[in-house]
Amino acid sequence: MIESIKAQGRQEMPAIVRRVSGDPDFDFEVICGARRHWTISWLRSHNYPDFKFLVDIREIGDEEAFRLADIENRARDDLTDLERARDYLRALDAYYDGRQKTMAERINVSESWLTRYLDLARLPEPLMAAFPEPQSLTIRNVIALKPLLKPEDKRARVFKEAAALGKQQADEGRPMAVLDVIRALTTAAASPKKSGSPKRSGSPQTISSSAGKAVLRIEGADRKGVRLTLLHKSGASREDAEKAMREVLDHHWA
């Protein structure tokens, strides 16, 4: 947007603002055009003092202001599903008394469409711990995640796995793909197998150096063997890797 406004020589489309009262620091509130406001402010402070922030002053209430902002946000590619979902959840209580059907009618969307966004915003924090980059979640992912939260025993297993996955990714300094995380959570959600059945290989286990650098990840172990990933870009030394390999051999080699 900075480059676009510089090329055009002006801000083409005015932002929508409304007057505020009782605030000694501000006279107006930006309803639509926060990025335009930021861009003009940046240009004015970086050797382009002649640029003006163009506005269209409206007399509108809170609910109408939300609807106007929502219309503009839907046309933006850089607003994530999670950001939009959290805006909808705040608006549901603030402007519509928790009535989802009323809100869907007012913003002109289907109730099922709105439900998916609200479900995304309501995902509990213990589950979100599995996603170090939660902004990458979309409403499509909710379809797979929501069933993992009931009944209570399944929910507990998923939360435990989410905490382990979050720690693993933090230790390795590299986030997993969203679909890989969801697959791991889905596996953890499954009821434990009855005694006598083959054991699962379990969640990936990371072996770290004495300095806390991830060295190896044990992806699983079964009758065929042990599957390993060498984390050679984690900052650990070759000596750390050799030591970790010896530990794996000592544990698994008959």
CATH class of the domain at 1-60: Alpha Beta
Rough outline: flat
| Rg (CA only) | 25 Å
User: What is the fold named in CATH at topology level of the domain at 1-60?
Assistant: Conserved hypothetical protein from pyrococcus furiosus pfu- 392566-001, ParB domain
InterPro entries: Chromosome_partition/occlusion, ParB/RepB/Spo0J, ParB/Sulfiredoxin_sf, SoPB_HTH
Protein name: SopB HTH domain-containing protein
Domain SopB HTH: 80-146
Region (Disordered): 189-214, 231-254
Task: Produce a short descriptive summary.
The protein has 254 residues and is of the alpha+beta class.
Descriptive labels:
flat, alpha+beta, three-stranded antiparallel β-sheet, 254 residues, single chain, Conserved hypothetical protein from pyrococcus furiosus pfu- 392566-001, ParB domain, 49% helix, 6 strands, three-stranded mixed β-sheet
Structure description:
With about 250 residues, the chain is α+β, with helices and mostly antiparallel strands. Among the domains are: about 1-60, Conserved hypothetical protein from pyrococcus furiosus pfu- 392566-001, ParB domain (Alpha-Beta Complex); about 205-254, no CATH class. The chain is about 50% helix and about 15% strand. It has eleven helices and six strands. The chain has helices at about 1-10, 35-45, 60-75, 80-95, 100-105, 110-120, 125-130, 140-145, 150-170, 180-190, 240-250; strands at about 15-20, 30, 55-60, 205-210, 215-220, 225-230. The strands form two sheets. It has a three-stranded mixed sheet. Strand 5 (about 215-220) and strand 6 (about 225-230) form a beta hairpin. Helix 3 (about 60-75) runs antiparallel to helix 4 (about 80-95), helix 5 (about 100-105) crosses helix 6 and helix 6 (about 110-120) packs across helix 8. About 20% of the residues are buried. Residues about 195-200 have low confidence and may be disordered.
